[in-house]
Amino acid sequence: MPASQTPTSHPVPRAPTRGRGPSGRPVRLHVAGALLATLALVASACSGGASTTPAASPQGSASPSGSTAPSPTPAATVKLVVGLGYIPNVQFAQFYLADQAGYYRDAGLEVEFQNKIDPDLVTLVGQGAVDIGISDGTSVIPAVSQGIPIRYVFTVFAQFPSIVFAKATSGIATAADLKGRKVAIPGKFGSSWIQLQALLAGVGLTVADLQLVLFPDFGQLAALEKGAVDAATGYANNEPVRLELSGEKASVFALPPASQLPGPGLIVGAAALDGPKKDALRAFVTATRRAMRDIEADPTKGVDATITRIPELATDRPAQLAVLEATIALWESGYTRTNGMGAVDPALWERSISFMASLPDKLLAKPVTAADCTSSALLPAP
Fold first, then answer.
1. Would you tell me which of 54, 118, 351, 381 could form a disulfide with 40, CB atoms 3.0–4.6 Å apart?
2. Can you give the pLDDT at residue 86?
3. How many alpha carbons lie under 13 Å from residue 363 in its C-beta half-sphere?
């Protein structure tokens, strides 16, 4: 998820994609309203159908001699339906690598990836129709407050990916310099809208101090490139990367550590934490984290796995690598480096819940706590 909001698509390359965040979803939907109606990561695309790719059948592993030997899998393979973002792209490289490298298979799992928009994913995970998926933490909080039984169990983006960006030549050097400037947004909804309010609050401003310009077609990057606006909301692994690939240096304004919000991560149904697939879900998380470590060490493995999954992305491999490297930079924080990749920070969640409850948008239907929204039951040892 990135969301997950979180981060319109272009024909090729498909990543970075316009108006999509780390969960790869369309971002036009208002989080609270969308969840009441039916979350991953970024409105025309919202009406698109989900795509489903069957998992490969479990198979043997090659031995050092080149012969094929049976994989050390449990007697009964467990099938998991995994919900990823709306459009397959390089931001999901760890899932593709874990699948292709046999990490899921060797853990006794048969994995089926489904690509869906965020509101559908949150609902389906809560219902148990999707076993595990990716969603923004800022979408989990209002969902749980509305009674959707989900839990956030693994932090994929330990640094909140939503940002505000501008051209380096704009004269905007800090978030405080946004005062009085024209700032492009897709709408007053989603993780980018929440991030903008948090960013401004940190420098004593509110959205009333800006000249907001709406681009419901997610055309804020194009508007900034043409000089129609001074800055825009976006995602650290999307628009600034695209801007710099075009030869224009970007200034990026992310949330400071003390103001971080929970980024996209893995969610499961609350009942699954004590259900028959609990061990399989834990094995999935462990295998996914292993692939993330592999990609951290060698990002080209993630690009290769993505291109194997989505061959058309091979036409612009440098762009895929640039997006993936920007994505990897968001996987870790001071908290996860101390407590292990994927660790869920309860203090961050409590701060975020309090902040979101204070917003005039009334995102929370009822009070919730970090314990209501998260669980560490599926986390592997650091």
1. 118
2. 82
3. 25
